[in-house]
Amino acid sequence: MSKDKKRIKRRCKKTLDVIITYCILIIVAFIFFFPCLWLILASFSKSGSIYSFDGFFPKEYGLDAFITLFTDTVMYNYQRWFLNTLFIASCSCILGTLLTILTAYCMSRFRFKSRKAMMKTTLVLGMFPSFMGTIAVYLIMTQFHLVNQMWGLILIYSAQAPMGYMVQKGFFDTIPYSIDEAARIDGASNFEIFRKFILPMSKPMLVYTALTSFTWPWSDFILPKMLLQDKNLYTVAVGLMSLGETEFARFAAGSIIIAIPIIILYFCLVKYMINGMSAGAVKE
Amino acid sequence: MANLSLKHIYKVYPNGTKAVNDFNMDIKDKEFIVFVGPSGCGKSTTLRMIAGLEKITYGELTIADEVVNSLEPKERDIAMVFQNYALYPHMTIYENIAFGLRTRKVNKKIIDEKVKEAAKTLGIEEYLYKKPKEMSGGQRQRVALGRAIVREPKVMLLDEPLSNLDAKLRTQMRSEIVKLHKKLNTTFIYVTHDQVEAMTMGTRIVVMKDGFVKQIDSPKNLYRYPSNKFVASFIGSPQMNFFNVTLKKQNNDVKVEFLNVKEEISIPFDKLVKIKPNFLDGTKEVVLGIRSENISLKKSSNSLKMKVSHVEELGNETLVYGDLDLNNDAIGDSPTKVIIKIPGFKEIEAGSIVDISLDFSFLHLFDKESEESILKRVPDNNYVNVEVKDNKLDLFGLEFNLPKAILLPSSSYEALIPLEAIKVKEGDKVKVKENEEVDEKYLLTLDINEHVLFALNEKKYQSVDISIDMSQITLLKDGKEVICPVERNNVFVGEFINKKIKDGKIKSHNEYYLKFLDEEFPSTDLITKKMCQAYDDRRVFHEKFSFSFRPSSIKISDSGVKGKVIKEMDYGNNKKYVTLKVKDHEIVVLDSKAKVDDEVYITFNIDEIGVTEIGRDIKVI
User: Fold this and answer.
1) Which of A190, A283, A284 should we substitute to test contact with B (largest number of B Cβ atoms within 10 Å)?
2) pLDDT above 90 as % of chain B
3) Residue A138 domain-assigned (yes or no)
4) B164:A283 CB<8 A
5) How many Å from the N-terminal Cα to the C-terminal Cα in chain A?
6) pTM to 2 decimals?
7) What would the pLDDT profile of B446-455 be if each residue is shown by its tens digit?
8) Which residue of A55, A113, B337, B479 sits 20 to 30 Å from the alpha carbon of B284, by its own alpha carbon?
9) Where are the domains of chain B?
10) B87 with A281: Cβ contact below 8 A
11) Which of B73, B131, B137 lies closest to A184 in CB terms?
12) Domain B490-619, what architecture?
């Protein structure tokens, strides 16, 4: 076989590889993007009912669903649900982030009895799905009179957040311990080391933790559905589920609006989610 | 600026690994001490224990006469420079240097002055408002130094600060650190594994291996008088040459037989007068060490043959590699490998056979088994043959009256006389051959009828009169000890116990006792504190200890433990010891009144106790 033929064959094979790869990527992207697209289009449905769709897509388009979401608050007070969700998610985010970071810092920096046992236990417990404990959580919250109260939810979300401290601990482990030691010799206390050195060097991890601590309560359904009975205390997820079957466009519009804060939050914080905060600290 | 004292310092990890073993050292103010040794020898651990970053398992660390074992690093007034710089990456250089002062609430104006002064000293003024990532390795290390010096600490600790720098920068920084030491006038403790750094920087060097201190001395003395084979091989480049030999004394010479090759040389005994005599019988294997610059390429009546394997011309000197075994080529760990350093250029053909001569003034001899030097600069003992006749000790013709305590049949004996036991005063009986200055004292080489005896003294003399403290000597007959030094410790096996004493229905307090000789002796506050500090948990109450007391720490009194005097040992000059029989134990006590068969009571001065944990052989007190 001549050299030219070999070259042509290699080029054809490469082109075919690229075509197949892109086809697979397009299919996967379509599978992921289609529900979003469908939901966005559904939110612009004029009739509102899913039964009036022409096949997959609405027959007529309009902004009625978005308008009624904020104007028709007698039956379905979306504004209220939105503020409730924002309050619960914000409080849970602050408390959860604080507890997670502190737990991870302790596990990373201090050596104490049963540390390894605790780490193994949390790892094993994390393997069980969280809804396994819902009945127990409900009973406990009943005992503490925290059913039908937003603080009940905030406490559960905040208390459960540190269970996932492993990622943060892994990050703290990468910050050289000699920085702690240098600071200790310079006269800093443990809290000062944490506040003045570890936290400023952990901005990417703080952002990641804050985002995950915010998104879970923001989009959770099971716990609020179980613990919140008063319609005025509903979160968006529970509230949207209570909508009637003919209110599908409003459901879709509500779902799209609730995604907006997370997208904004992500774009605001993404600049901190970069590596290299500890560059220059130690010789690598 | 402060003195440091490390007494019986140990670092034992929970799994039982001993990282540092019985580290003892006194560091004077303004000294530059270098800890040197191979990786894992415990030098950094010791430094970190001084810094307070690592807990001291046992022992006592004193900085400026204050015990600091339980103090936090910030309370010890020390500063430390880390191997990897450990700068604060999110702070500017100014903030990095100022941080230590800010935490101590120093006035802002003073901080500014001090930071700028430190930056000027280290030549980093123009980088003050930059971040560490914008600086080179050498500049970062200067920042780390600046952060340490700005606080004007009592002690500066440096943990391999130059090991991350390239060779040129390292040499430059080395001299800068030495200059800094002179300028700051403070105590420096510097850890390195580089013997060149150690030799060029330290006023004293601590050589460590496997957690043990192998030798503490000045660079010059370490090189000239290594006390063991490890130090001899670790210090000096190229490494010292070692050969396995046997030594046999023949008249005024010592015949040296090389074991791996059939070679022999004779060394005048004058060069080996400090050697332990039991190594001169031609049976014990000894390691002979000699540095490469003390071997020359010349023929003499005592020269050896060497086959040259290769030559390295370094410009100012030439290294000649070869082997005493003419069938070998000095590759690998040949026991007969030789390295010779000669000044200037010398063209020698590989494979040629040359004559080499050893400079006997620079010989080192080590026991093959223990690897300890048997030719120490200051010998531990005088090993001599003595005659005992009519209760008089004949030492090379000089007669000494034996005290009543030593009653021996007339015969010849081998004697071990410690240097401290020989007391000298100005006189004319004994000629002093040499006065060698050793650590602010003089090692006197005494010539007694053409025999040599060593003594230590504060002054130097031309001739002296001598006396011997017989309580310190050991006499042996056919290798068996017939007289032993009396000032040996009395040792008892026992335990440390506590008892809860109820003061009322609820209140109670603990009382602590040392239990030995089947008796319980109340512990003093000091001893209790030291024992409890040494152990974090209740293990202190479960371990077996050996408690030791010097004879002077035990007193005969009206009450206490009952015993019977079985022997009196009168050494004259009001120095009398008695041996007591107490519950199957023989205890030696310094006492001038008790007589044989007297029944007496003894008390122990607990504050003068020595305590060693038997299980792990750790000296707790």
Assistant:
1) A283
2) 28
3) yes
4) yes
5) 52
6) 0.81
7) 888 878 889 9
8) B337
9) 4-232, 238-367, 381-483, 490-619
10) yes
11) B73
12) Beta Barrel (2.40)
